[in-house]
Amino acid sequence: MRTFRMVTLWRLPAERTAVWEALADVRGWPRWWPGIEAVELLEPGDDAGLGRTARLTVDSGLGYRLTFTVRVTQVDEGRGLTARSIGHLVGTGHVVLADTTFPRGVGTAVTTVWEVALTRWWMRPLVPLGAPVLRRRHDVVMRRGERGLQEQLRRR
Questions:
Q1: Which helix (DSSP H) or strand (DSSP E) does residue 131 occupy?
Q2: Fold of the CATH domain 3-155
């Protein structure tokens, strides 16, 4: 299976602690992240989130949904995590939060790197020609998440 490496950078005008808390509340993602249709928490993990396991359903925007389970395998509380994904997406993701500055104060940069393969039988033959489209759809879903989280953090 061909693996995709997708890198996303979010710049959020909020303190890292607030961003971490919002991201740690995976059941709340559908409230602010368009495209995330459902999150089912399967295992809460420990106090830091290690072992947290959730099943996500994501609308691709192309007429199909992806369902996959993500399990947190490493945590640097407040700074980042590593997770494994199984289901329609199989692979590893890394999320790193870092302090950054904005014209009006502090902010947080969130870098997400996913290396995943698609497992749906009908998608695999399309991967060689469809990779650019799949990457663009990923970027759209992630941009919508960034905007949604910015709004969520503003409301707090």
A1: helix 127-155
A2: Alpha-D-Glucose-1,6-Bisphosphate; Chain A, domain 4 (3.30.530)
